[in-house]
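Example 3.2
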Amino acid sequence: MQGFILKATASTYSHRRPTDRVGQQVGSRGVPNRCRSTFNGKRVSNHQSHRGTAPPPDEGKYLEDAFWKKKSLSGRQITSTEVLRSFGNDRTSLRSGFFLQKLCLQNILHDNKKVTPDQVIQEFNREPDWHNKYKLAIARFEAECCLRGWTLHGQQVTPEAVVRHYQAAKAILELERFKAECCLRGLLLNGQQVTPDIVVKGYQAANATLELARFKEQCCLRGLLLSGQRVTPDAVVKDYQVARATLELARFKADCCLRSWLLDGQQVTPDAVVKDFQAVGATLELARFKAECCLRSWLLKGQQVTPDAVVKDFQVAKATLELARFKEQCCLKGLTLNGQQVTPDAVVKDFQTAGATLELARFKEECCLRGLALNGQRVSPDEVVKDYHAVKATLELAHFTAECCLRGLLLNDQQVTPDEAVKGFPDSPEGKLGVARVKEQCCLKGLALNGQRVSPDEVVKDYQAIKATLELARLKAECCLRSLTLNGQQVTPDAVYKDFPDSPEGKLGLVRFKEECCLRGLALNGQRVSPDEVVKDFQAANAKLELARFIEECCLRGLLLNGQQVSPDAVVKGFPDSSEGKLGIARFKQQCCLRGLALNGHRVTPEAVVKDFPDSSQGELGIAHFKAECCLRGLLWNGLQLTPGAVGKDFPDSPEGKLGVARFKGECCLRGLRWNGKQVTPEDVVKDFQATKATLELARFKEECCLRGLSLNSQQVTPDSVIQDFQAAKAILDLARFKEKCCLRGLSLNGQLVTPEVVVKDFPDSPEGKLGIARFKAECCLRGLALNDQQVTPDAVVKDYERGGWLLERAIFYALLALHGRELNGNYLDNQTVLAAFNQLPGDHSSRQTRYLIQRLKQSQQYDEINEGQDRLQEAWQILNRVSIKDDEQHRLQCILKFMAMHYELSIDHYKVSVVQVLQSIKTLRRSFHNSRLYFFLLAHCYITRQSIDGRKIHKDQVMQSLQRFPEGSKLQHALGFWFEQGSCEANIMDELLFELENTAAPGIDSAHGY
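Structure, written as tokens:
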């Protein structure tokens, strides 16, 4: 029920448009409705019957129109003072009151000062009209002040006061409209909630059929109950038909189409919506809807709606502001107009033409946060703040200041503290909600407010005070998933389940929570949430994109649907035919390619992935990141190895692109890959990170240089300098993790060794920090390090993992205890206990289980436990064979098992494995650095043991020649060549072969131990 501008006469109920920025309403003077009043009536400057008795030509109206349209008269701009002066001959102060009211509501200065609500009331009272219409005008304005949380005479305007004034003015319809707003906003009247049933009765008594239909539409959209039942879309359609509100009906059907709601049991098609808008001659609504179809990649009459076609429609409707908004979306989404990208400068020009100063400020904020350049320069946060100050956009300014705080952006060269962020919000319902959301983020990120940590209980109280039921439910869900306590107790999934409101947004939020429970293995009502149940709920909510993404997760994690593993083909089919769906398909195919999953029975090639990315800036950046990943993994492109220099050229010349290049260069430096024939030096990487002002990325890179012994500017990077960099970036968690590494590696800080106590103290009191402490205590336990002068026991570590709900970490710890021969609760862990711990988790963990058994197999051979080794090898083989859809890692593990069977002279399925069989198995793998290692070690094994392949002996040059599969001069090539040249004996081939299992961050490996 938003989108009203106060009017002195009875007005029709203005229809609320969808909340997206492309679809918001625009006023006749190019002012968006969100800058106007949010309650009662239409335009305030067009009150012909209440503007006194000045005979035509009306100079006041002429000047006022020129003022709002920003037209110059006699070569100069009309000021607000001149407009008010022109109303001087009026017999009443109604017109001047309305003019001041509009200045007040739109935060427009008068005489370089802000117009206060008290001034507006004073002006209405200055020269009352004989018919007491000024009383109705005052009542309407006071209603607006009440809804905005503004003060009059130093006090908040209460709903009860507004009701009394409407009753005194005998404005029955206005009174019912205000009650409807109280109902929708959760405002109390006489200490009680205004229920939808009360509002309906009031509208029926006033015989307001159109208002009644509009209110029931809001109930339908928000999931509010009438007479104990949900309002169906069909019921809303029927009410609009009774009221003969054809335009409202067309708009509602458009909403149903955009939300994928059914009418008469069928989907509302875009073509049907277009037909309805055309029938009522709604050219602007039609243009807006076609813009939505364009942005969602929907078809009209079987064809894509092009951005160029939408632009023409907005031009026909003479909707300059809507056109500017649409071009903004094209710019941000990377869509082309007339074959060219829409630049931020072009968008700025269009907003300036439309006189949309607030919209322009919002767009510049987007440019600032996304790193987009205007006039060749990045938009600074200070510039955004200046623009918001200029248009008196207090709420937007507060939200942006909060963003700067949470993202670490500087204002006036200083960090924005949470205290400063909170102070900026106005004392209004929207401002209070903003404060609560900032406090929630402080709570979840461990940021201090007023010198103290923000507790979840404090945030809960704030949400309860403003009756933000959806936000409250989401917070409790976060507390549950992050193991945060409320009132000193853990939040259970069952408690969260009850708190989500019975509305479309609430139901979708509940499904998302159930999805998380399913993926994490949490129980609801004593039972695990099955993937099938989540799928059913997403289908009921008509959330096609969310459903497709969940099915994708099931496929990648190995979760079963209908008792079967989800195939990649099924995932691709599930994505909707929209821009988001197409991008989702491209990203999923990328995952299939990188993981080695087959689509339509064939491996997904890098070339095929690139074809699916959209032709946009977002797609261009996605392709560059993907090619960089292929280069680092050694995947072939058109049969050739990708070179870093060529990949670097694919990154777009944008802030995101430059940061991508810097990160890629960092990886090339650490791996020793050449860039255009030259080694990438640490100095090169540091320079690029500094140019992009990526302080955290720079600190992380210098951390790697420190730990790997790389020099920077001819000097070793010291742990102390890394600490300083993390402190400058305010990266508390990274800082604690680095101190952990210093402790475990025996590195000094400030000339002293880092003790375990210091490490634990430095981890933040957040879910991530608590997990970091638990992992560190596990390391202390395995290494025998004392914490607070006591040994960390395995039992204590397991309790920490269980308390936090980190069951995967517990399973990994079980595996490490077994491999290290440590007791748990007085007993040694056997293989079945370890494997069962992984089986308790949702999804497929066959790779982790196999890697564990491989290490156990190696141990059994070291102690000549041949029978045990045979059993472990066979069990690992069976675990992998049970997986119906295998990825690259599982195929590689099968090759390693065959290699070990050959090496240790063990059998698989009662058959011995020959060198030729191992070679054939390796040849079935994709060409990559991981798989090339296997080929190298097989040749080395044959050379050292003097075994032949197909009757041919392996010579030393063949082994060295196989190193050409790796980039020339890379650290991997050098390390393998050095190992072989040193005349390594056969005994340590298996150690070197399995080295990647423990130290390579391959997909699916979740810890430093390879599990």
